[in-house]
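Anti-sigma factor antagonist
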Amino acid sequence: MSELNIEIPENFAVDEADELRKKLDYLLDKNEKSFVLDFSKCTFIDSTGLGVLVSAYKKCKNVNGTFKLHSVNDQVMKIFKMTRLDKVFDIE
């Protein structure tokens, strides 16, 4: 099973999150189910971005897929820890 790498933008807020949601929904509809999200450029994530990640994570799990976060910096990791999503997501 090959993993699709998806780059997360520097500012992962409302507009960017909506764009990613549409992209992930499209890919899931095409039977893709293994994703690696590259956070190497991301310095900010808001609640909309978090919501998109949680929704996509659940959809992947429902089809026995994988959903990994990669290269999360300390600033963004604080948000994952505050929301306890660091316990949910596979963060490398």
